[in-house]
Amino acid sequence: VPELPEVETIRRDLEREVAGLTIERVDATGVRTLRRTGAFEPFVREVEGYRLTVADRRGKYLLLRLETGRVVVVHLGMSGQLLYAAPGTPLGPHTHVVWHFGGGPELRFVDPRTFGEVFVSTPSQPGGVPDELAHLGADPFDATLTPATLATGLAGRRTKLKPLLLDQRFVAGIGNMYADEILWAARLGPDRPAAGTSRREASRLHGAIRETLTAAVAHRGSSLADEQYRDLYGEVGRYQARHNAYGREGRPCPRCGSPIRRLKAYGRSTFFCPRCQR
Ligand SMILES: [Zn+2]
User: What do you get for the CA distance between the two ends of the chain, in Å?
Assistant: First the structure.
């Protein structure tokens, strides 16, 4: 499941490859993918013929800004991929939207499980976040997320640290895999009550969020055994080789040597070191 580092990797690729290009034509065929728009025709009309100015991101959402002020919002869901393809390359199965950039490359949205979606929105503030995403909390790289604001946010919460990190209204972009890596880096147990976090621990958690996500972006995200996550060029990420806790049940903790433990709750697995994460 793509999380912030995977989406940010794709954003940077999009910024390099398609920002500044005019969308000459759009082929939209995915009914589920365009469920928020409800019909192809209005979607196509909003997009065709306009220049894509900037590739932005908010949490796990990609924001492709158009010269009209409209924004094409892309969420990859469980299995979505945005792929850059030479024109004429045969379309793979589950291709739901294709953006054509005048004889040059094509951008293709491929999504076998169709949990992802694409829609057009108009932010009430130019360059702002679309209203549909107003519920999202701070992006981990926003300047507004500081050790102090994080400490304040944690203080009032009855929930535990891991579910809070997964709550997109609290902080946007972290999913199951990076929550485990972040808590390992911060040496904090996933079941710790958020409200019991000291200032010092909140500061450590803040550092772990930034450092873990930055390192994961530097290694172009994580592709797990299913290799579902691909970057714009169809390549897998490299950060999975650097995971310290996630997916490492029974293997020694890289910090203290104790076996990493796996807990199952709410249909998800949590991996952590019972010795050095408190
Ligand atoms: Zn350990």
Answer: 27
pLDDT tens by residue, 156-202:
899 999 999 999 999 999 999 999 999 999 999 999 999 999 999 99
Cα dihedral angle (223, 8, 135, 184), rounded to 10 degrees? 50
- How many alpha carbons fall within 13 Å on the CB side of residue 124? 4
**Residue among 57, 60, 162, 230 flagged as catalytic:** 60
pTM over 0.90: yes
Distance of alpha carbon 206 from alpha carbon 197, whole angstroms:
12
Ligand 1 centroid vs 254 CA: distance in angstroms? 7
Contacts by 266-270 with C-beta closer than 8 Å and gap 24+? 268/176, 269/176, 270/162, 270/176, 270/180, 270/190
Residue 275 Cα, ligand 1 centroid: separation in angstroms? 5
The pLDDT tens digits of the residues spanning 69-82 come to: 999 999 999 999 99
User: Is 35 in the active site?
Assistant: no
What is the dihedral sign for C-alpha 273, 247, 75, 77?
A: negative
Q: How far is the CA of 250 from the centre of ligand 1 (A)?
A: 12
